[in-house]
């Protein structure tokens, strides 16, 4: 089993910045992808950004140039630096870890952290 603990959400004004962190613990494979997803009220959960063990990143078009995902493999921790925040970024942000054992991929989720962008 894998546990994910997120931190760093909060209330910020438009144009401001936040940094989310997610620490993973438990039965973690040597190769895995971590990422962030967001879900606004009444909407489906959607990709924000992912990063592989090798450092390859992928971003949603809506956050490219504003958000940066990074990870510390030694700490099994992923970060999301969120700059130039907009009101439409308001959502609950969930950390995800995906790893494969054999031919099966497993997804693990954190409890979510709320990000609210408002003046």
Portion of residues within helices? under 10%
Average pLDDT, rounded to a whole number, is: 95
State Rg.
14 Å
Judged by helices, strands and strand pairing, the structural class is mainly beta
The H/E string reads EEEEEEEEEEE
Helical segment count: 0
Shape: globular
Biggest sheet architecture: 7 strands, mixed
Q: Runs with pLDDT <50, length 5+?
A: none
Distance between the termini: 40 Å
Strand content is: over 45%
Care to count the β-strands?
A: 11
Describe, in plain words, how this protein is organized in 3D.
By secondary structure, the protein is mainly β. It is 0% helix and 58% strand. The protein contains no helices and eleven strands. The protein has strands spanning 2-7, 10-12, 18-26, 32-39, 46-51, 57-59, 67-72, 77-82, 91-101, 104-109, 113-117. Strands 2, 4, 5, 6, 9, 10 and 11 form a seven-stranded mixed sheet that branches. A hairpin with a 6-residue loop joins strand 4 (32-39) and strand 5 (46-51). The radius of gyration is 14 Å and the shape is globular.
Gist?
With 119 residues, the protein is an all-beta fold.
């Amino acid at each position: 089993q894998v546990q994910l603990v997120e931190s760093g959400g909060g209330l910020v004004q438009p144009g401001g910045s936040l940094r989310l962190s997610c620490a993973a613990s438990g039965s973690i494979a040597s190769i895995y992808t971590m990422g962030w997803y967001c879900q606004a009220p009444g909407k489906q959960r959607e990709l924000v950004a992912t990063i592989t063990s090798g450092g390859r990143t992928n971003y949603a078009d809506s956050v490219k140039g504003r958000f940066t995902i990074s990870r510390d493999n030694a700490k099994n921790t992923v970060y999301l630096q969120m700059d130039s925040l907009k009101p439409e970024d308001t959502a609950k942000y969930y950390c995800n870890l995906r790893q494969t054992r054999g031919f099966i991929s497993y997804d693990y989720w954190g409890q979510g952290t709320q990000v609210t962008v408002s003046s």
